[in-house]
Amino acid sequence: MFCTMFPYLSWQGTDLGTGVRMLRFVRKFSVNVFKSSSLCNERVYFSKTKMRLVSVTWQDCSLRKYSSPPGDIKSLHSVINPHISRIRNIGIMAHIDAGKTTTTERMLYYSGYIRTLGDVDDGDTVTDFMVQERERGITIQSAAVTFDWKDYRINLIDTPGHVDFTVEVERCLRVLDGAVAVFDASAGVEAQTLTVWRQADKHQIPRICFLNKMDKTRASFTYAVESIEQKLKTKPLLLQLPIGEAKTFRGLVDVVTKEQIVWKSTSDLDDGKNFERKLLLEADDPNLFQEVHDARNTLIEQVADLDDEFAELVLGEYSENLDLIPADKLQSAIRRVTLAQKAVPVLCGSALKNKGVQPLLDAVTMYLPAPNERSYDFLQWYKDDLCALAFKVLHDKCRGPLVFIRIYSGSLKPQSAVYNINKNCTERMSRLLLPFADQQIEIPSLMPGNIALAVGLKRSATGDTIVSSKASAAAAARQAGRDAGGEKRSSSDIESLLLAGVEIPDPVFFCTIEPPSVAKQQDLDNALSCLQREDPSLKVKIDPDTGQTILCGMGELHIEIIHDRIKREYGIETYLGPLQIAYRETILNAAQATDTLDKTVGDKRHFVTAELEVRPRLGEKAMTKPVIKYAASVIEVLPKELQGAIENGVMNSCIQGPLLGFPVQDIDVTVQSLTVHPDTSHTMLSACVSRCMQKALKKAGIQVLEPLMNLEITVSEDHLSVALADLAQRRGSIQEIQSRQDNRVVVAAVPLAEMMGYSTVLRSLTSGSATFTLELASYQALNSQEQSALLQRRMGLV
Ligand SMILES: Nc1nc2c(ncn2[C@@H]2O[C@H](COP(=O)(O)OP(=O)(O)OP(=O)(O)O)[C@@H](O)[C@H]2O)c(=O)[nH]1
């Protein structure tokens, strides 16, 4: 599907003149296949596609710095690989429906990369290109697009807002240098904003806040800013003030320069390209003038508090009159505090009404960091050698997997071999493409800081680290090992230092999936392995008892979308079993067990006697990996190579607990004694340890744990009581009821088992007016009654 949606143009490295001519061609005719009449069936897609050739004048090209004459190598190079200080890798993140896709669409439009404005509600935006995204009006996959704004190259990633796709957000954050957090100005900080904000904190990503939807009836700049300050515990720097609010919103004032930016046209058809920018004078609006004057002084004070260099200016040269502080000095200081993540610039606008997006783009280039202004720990071990991260995979029927790559150091060239550390394999890359808006342009090389699409990598998956060769990976590992304290760190610790991967939380839902006939099983397996490479939060396993394929996902919507994609993209009509909860198991007491394996295979005798102890682990954070220790008498004589086999045996027994077959968490395991005959294979040793573990776990008494979810419902006062009554029946415990403008926000903890089909129920209870988000909080123990009821259900007794 991708090749029909993203036509690409190419040139080969040596013929640069042709390359430039090709670029001119790219600019002249932007092929927009998104206005296709058919978005549904991939196989008929091509024949039904109406290619729309949009003429772009040569003047347009020159504005976008593509005007260099054929053969000008320097400028061609800057088109492909701009100077690193001119690159911005940014993400757009927010709560569901805050307006990320609409804002991205406007950015592409104003930068000249699309000729018509797409609309989420009409299902024709560039970044929401999956059929399911267009139908549902939500972002499911992150989309990476490249465009130029003024003199800057912006690689932008539009991330999903729905909580089921949080992993997608997390893995994108890994490759971003900065982010724009979009808010609905009438709602302020919402549940999912908090989650993505925490994720961005974890990856230390400098941010800008954009208060979108300033045109909405209940939009309130003050309310949204207060909620940012209180809920996100951050220091908002107000760089703009709105002119008007809700219906009267028509522009903004740049607090730094004191310029007013006003969109004169009130027509919904106006594309917002034309606006007036001029100094705000007292005579224009005395109240607003005073407000801006006060806001600028507050901003200066805030920044001076956070930045010593600026404080010196304020206290010295300009102490008599803060009005005289030049805008560029203030901007530089704002940039420094933003990069240091001491504060967050706040801007506002209405993406839908085409207001405020151009100043937002200016702020992105002005205040967010270039790749060389960020520090990445793992880079110190690669120096100038290649280090890149595969952060997204798309399957294209014509060209195979397309892998989005962010390059951190070294360089990448097409037709070259690279080494994938995670997969421990060497792969050949055939082509490199830049994802310019809705086209792809083939490039001859990729330099640090940039993002591109690699064609030909058959095994690389989302989250893999790519380097130049196995030797380079080994050298980096040696260096990392030395820096990390040599022998004291295990090899897996060192590996994790080298890998720039993403932590994937365990899925909370699962169900069986069956093809329409046995003959289609192989096709289904292929489809699932492709989807898994794209989406590491999707897990697929085989039920050891029934042999059925099990699909495990992050939520109802996640599984629904996967089911739909298998049908539409791979043409397989599958049947899903009922959705089930992924419980966990843990132990109640400490216990010991002994096991002996004595087997002769051929002329070899495999003999193991193991004695293990298991104990409940009392940590704050749930741990699915058991902590394995060895008694002193064992570790003294245990050959290192047997350790791996023992640990495999322990891990395997924890994948399926002894009571219901769910993963076992929070246990400590001690190998008390071990006797191994020299001929014993590692597989036999693992098998014996695994069996011994199962015995010990059973003796220790099993407790089933269920996923407990954080629930946040936004509901009107009228429907509050009915929503609360319903929650009480779902074993929900209400933690807080907050006010959000005219609405109430109920914060509660509810077992996931009680939330099946909740969206339909809530919709009917509140006439569709309430919204909710659900996020995994922890695992809690079932009481004995609930546990035995669950056991009976699982055994088919009730
Ligand atoms: N009034 C108003 N509506 C807006 C504005 N921006 C977006 N919308 C509407 O809000 C809805 C959600 O917009 P999207 O751009 O899809 O939001 P999103 O954050 O990308 O949504 P997800 O990807 O599903 O999380 C759509 O109906 C938009 O038309 C705005 O500035 N004002």
Automatic annotation (TrEMBL):
Full protein name: Ribosome-releasing factor 2, mitochondrial
Function field: Mitochondrial GTPase that mediates the disassembly of ribosomes from messenger RNA at the termination of mitochondrial protein biosynthesis. Acts in collaboration with MRRF. GTP hydrolysis follows the ribosome disassembly and probably occurs on the ribosome large subunit. Not involved in the GTP-dependent ribosomal translocation step during translation elongation.
Reactions this protein catalyses: GTP + H2O = GDP + phosphate + H(+)
A GO molecular-function annotation: GTPase activity
PANTHER family: RIBOSOME-RELEASING FACTOR 2, MITOCHONDRIAL (PTHR43261:SF1), TRANSLATION ELONGATION FACTOR G-RELATED (PTHR43261)
Gene: GFM2
Pfam families according to UniProt: EF-G_D2 (PF22042), EFG_C (PF00679), EFG_III (PF14492), EFG_IV (PF03764), GTP_EFTU (PF00009)
Annotated compartments: Mitochondrion
GO CC annotation terms, alphabetical: mitochondrial matrix
Residues of the Tr-type G domain: 85-372
Residues binding GTP, per UniProt: 94-101, 158-162, 212-215
InterPro entries documented for this protein: EF-G-like_DII (IPR053905), EFG2 (IPR030851), EFG_II (IPR041095), EFG_III (IPR009022), EFG_III/V (IPR035647), EFG_V (IPR035649), EFG_V-like (IPR000640), G_TR_CS (IPR031157)
